[in-house]
Design goal:
Length: about 300
């Protein structure tokens, strides 16, 4: 083999590749010059971006949906927590408001009782209610005051509205009140407007006027007060207001429904009236609370 074979022959394919490269370079230079002078490529890029914008929006849609779902979940969780906190605060505020309202009502009732005591210049003792028995056949209260605090048998029990009943049992620390509405209770009374004497009977949760003569000047709306007969209840204490009148079975007398003046079914304290010379004679002079007595002279049947 000779040591020098001469230059390698030029192949047509290499020449064509070189020419294409030169053409591409020339085209690139031309495009750069044209873009620099007229901004054609920038306009083409802008139009291309407009054409590809929907595709880019669709491509980014899953990510946006994921972010939205995450934000909505976080917002719902935060709103649920806030709602729970606000609901608890509302319940607490409602409970506090209810307690304040109850305290306001109790203060108003106590102020009414104090006002009644001051207006009547009464000697009274405040006693708390421990228990209530409002069965139709047994209308009683148990008070947290007894002989140790000066409570006596037959003592009259009142509130700011009027007469509640009388003490029928006394223990060292507690006492029992027979309410006016007890079926075993009868109370001499009078119409405040004209002094017509009547008897108020307990009917197991309500009050009734019995044996009212047809000729009596008694009307619906009349106020009925204690008459003082029998010596147990001082005269002039409100008992109730006549709510309705109707004939009895014999048609010879009238029966009257009485709306109690006292709040027999509410309150936490009552007033025990201390009898003295300015109100009535001592309770010991009256007949026992459960002993039978004529309706015009005694307070219990």
């Amino acid at each position: 083999m000779p040591s020098y074979a001469g230059p390698a022959p030029v192949r047509p394919a290499d020449v064509a590749g070189t020419l294409r490269l030169l053409a591409y370079l020339a085209l690139g230079v031309a495009l750069i010059v044209l873009d620099h002078r007229g901004g054609w490529l920038q306009q083409i890029r802008g139009k291309a971006e407009m054409l590809t914008e929907p595709l880019r929006w669709v491509a980014g849609l899953p990510g946006r949906i994921g972010n939205s779902v995450h934000d909505d979940a976080a917002t719902r969780s935060r709103l649920a927590d806030d709602n729970r906190v606000l609901r608890n605060a509302l319940l607490i505020s409602g409970a506090r408001l209810a307690r304040l309202q109850a305290a306001a009502n109790e203060n108003a009732r106590l102020r009414g009782m104090l006002g009644a005591v001051e207006r009547g210049e009464l000697d009274v003792q405040l006693a708390p209610i421990l228990n209530i028995d409002l069965d139709p056949t047994r209308q009683r209260l148990v008070l947290g005051a007894g002989s140790g605090t000066g409570v006596r048998m037959g003592q009259v029990v009142i509130d700011a509205g009027g007469v509640l009943g009388q003490i029928i049992d006394v223990k060292p620390a507690t006492s029992t009140v027979l309410l006016l509405t007890d079926p075993d209770h009868a109370l001499p009374a009078a119409v405040a407007r004209n002094g017509v004497r009547l008897v108020v009977y307990g009917r197991g949760g309500r009050l009734e006027l019995a044996n009212i003569p047809l000729s009596s000047d008694v009307k619906v709306g009349d106020s009925v007060v204690t008459s003082g007969l029998g010596g147990r209840f001082p005269a002039g204490f409100p008992i109730g207001t006549i709510a309705a009148l109707r004939p009895d079975d014999s048609r010879a007398f009238l029966l009257g429904d009485l709306r109690p003046a006292a709040q027999l079914d509410r309150g936490r304290e009552v007033l025990l009236l201390r009898l003295n010379a300015t109100t009535s004679r001592p309770a010991a002079a009256a007949p026992p609370a459960t002993a039978p007595a004529p309706a015009t002279a005694g307070e219990s049947r």
